[in-house]
Design goal:
40% of the residues are buried. Helix 1 packs parallel to helix 2 (38-47) and helix 2 packs parallel to helix 3. Strand 8 (122-126) and strand 9 form a beta hairpin. A six-stranded mixed sheet has the order 4-3-2-1-12-13. The protein has a five-stranded mixed sheet with strand order 5-6-7-9-8, covered by helices on one side. The chain has a two-stranded antiparallel ribbon with strand order 10-11. The chain has four helices and 13 strands. It has a single domain (2-177), classed as Purple Acid Phosphatase, chain A, domain 2. With 182 residues, it is of the alpha/beta class. Helices cover 21% and strands 31% of the residues.
Length: 182
C-alpha cells in the first residue's frame, strides 16, 4: 500500500495542487495538519479520490467549517489532534506536533508515526518505528523567515520505506514581470 504524507499547507493551493497531481497512485493520503481555510479540504477532496485522513494542526482557521466541508466528502476523515489506524499491516499514528509525535515513535507501539508543525522535512528511524515529517507545502520557514523547499513523502507499507519528494517551483519576479493592474 502506498501512502502520501503531507503537512502544513497554510492555504498554498498552488503547491497543494502540484502535490495532488503527483500522488494520484497513492492508496490513501495523510495530512498532518495546518490546512488553514475550509476550502483547502474541498480542493483535497476533489483532487484526490482515495481516502484522506487529516489531523488538526494549530493553524486551522475554522475547524467547524473545515468539518462541514469534510462532511460533504465520504472519503475525507477528520480525526482531531490524534489518529491511529492500521493500514497495509502497519500500525500508524499521526499528530501535528513533533514534541508529541516523537515520544510516540520512541514508544515502539507503531510502525509509522507522522507529524508536521515545524516545517522541517525529516525521515528518521527510532528502533523499528519510522518517524516522518513531510515538511511544509507552504514552502516557508516562519521561525527563520526564509523560503524552504516544498516537500512531501510517499510511504510504502510493503517495504516499510519512505521517500521524500520536492515540488519544483519556478517563480521569478523581475522588473519586466510586473503588469499594471487596472
Amino acid at each position: 500500500m502506498k501512502i502520501a504524507v503531507l503537512s502544513d499547507i497554510h492555504d498554498n493551493v498552488w503547491t497543494l495542487q502540484a502535490v495532488l497531481n503527483k500522488v494520484q497512485d497513492a492508496d490513501l493520503l495523510i495530512c498532518c495538519g495546518d490546512l488553514c481555510s475550509p476550502f483547502v479540504v474541498g480542493l483535497m477532496a476533489e483532487g484526490f479520490r482515495n481516502p484522506i485522513h487529516i489531523v488538526e494542526g494549530n493553524n486551522e482557521g475554522d475547524w467547524r467549517r473545515i468539518s462541514q466541508v469534510a462532511g460533504r466528502h465520504s472519503h475525507v476523515h477528520l480525526h482531531g489532534e490524534f489518529f491511529q489506524e492500521e493500514f497495509g499491516g502497519k500500525r500508524i499514528a499521526v499528530n501535528h506536533y513533533p514534541d508529541v509525535a516523537l515520544p510516540i515513535a520512541l514508544s515502539g507501539r507503531y510502525d509509522l508515526v507522522c507529524y508536521g508543525h515545524n516545517h522541517l522535512f525529516s525521515i528518521e528511524k527510532h528502533g523499528e518505528t519510522l518517524a516522518l515529517n513531510p515538511g511544509a507545502l507552504l514552502g516557508y520557514d516562519p521561525v527563520n523567515r526564509r523560503e524552504i523547499p516544498v516537500t512531501f513523502i510517499m510511504y510504502d507499507t510493503s517495504s516499510n520505506s519512505a521517500s521524500g519528494y520536492q515540488v519544483p517551483l519556478k517563480v521569478t519576479v523581475g522588473e519586466n514581470d510586473l503588469v499594471l493592474y487596472p
